[in-house]
Amino acid sequence: xxxxxxxxxxxxxxxxxxxxxxxxxxxxxxxxxxxxxxxxxxxxxxxxxxxxxxxxxxxxxxxxxxxxxxxxxxxxxxxxxxxxxxxxxxxxxxxxxxxxxxxxxxxxxxxxxxxxxxxxxxxxxxxxxxxxxxxxxxxxxxxxxxxxxxxxxxxxxxxxxxxxxxxxxxxxxxxxxxxxxxxxxxxxxxxxxxxxxxxxxxxxxxxxxxxxxxxxxxxxxxxxxxxxxxxxxxxxxxxxxxxxxxxxxxxxxxxxxxxxxxxxxxxxxxxxxxxxxxxxxxxxxxxxxxxxxxxxxxxxxxxxxxxxxxxxxxxxxxxxxxxxxxxxxxxxxxxxxxxxxxxxxxxxxxxxxxxxxxxxxxxxxxxxxxxxxxxxxxxxxxxxxxxxxx
Length: 390
Hints:
Largest sheet: none
CATH topology: Growth Hormone, Chain: A
CATH superfamily: MFS general substrate transporter like domains
């Protein structure tokens, strides 16, 4: 157990550090808008490019079998170093076109970090796997909240941010090398067979877990991306106050990950995810009709939303690691994340369009469709005999 906890800490820290370049564009978009005279649509594309690049990278890992044939720590290390280099080259980008390509490459490289990290952590834990994955994703949640904190402090020069996040990501690639040995529950290293891998993800429990994850991601990243904008329009809240409130609403999700993991290990993956989805979806609906609420109450509801919106994320990954053919767990997790991040690109783009041309109420109700869809998938998952989900 002490070795497992040490491995978890190292992998979580390495993943948090490595994934910092994911959020680097969020730090500097306002400055790049002025420097390169970007439209709001082009600014959003700098974020969406990372999501789609990640999807392509995850599909490549799964399609070539690298996710199951190469040790996860080696993939994480090389992926982090390459992502750091792609991010650093932004310093010499003359404008939007090259920057967009570099952000996509950064996302593709990070696909060699996040899915293998989930697999690596799972190999160290069988009992307590839900909590272990929750700790790792909780660390990433704090990373997602960090741009709002920087924004509230007045910001940093964009070159400083690019260099700092590149160095941090490279250090993450080095840090994961300090994990010694393999976990006590390793997944077999397998020769990739496309037909067998697709059979693994068509396994009904895996398929339903993936559909539930897609519904969860429909809501998650759009909430993270636009909660600050939503709060900034409230009466009596300054730009700095909105950024601090957004940091709290996103960052509190780290605690949600811990509670979700604890509930999952005690009562099951699906019940834990169902509770999270019901709470987050309800919060989105309440906020959609919060026009007459005082600002402080809307912020509290937003924090409740942020607490539960991420609490189920680790449990969908745990379902796949426990239900998929052990020979193809790496590919199965990569494909799950690819499906989820394709979904995020749609809602990150859609929410501001709906808010501008319809209303925030419509945008929030559209986000609530995701949890409803995921709940439907998980109710079907729970009807599968227990012996078929393992």
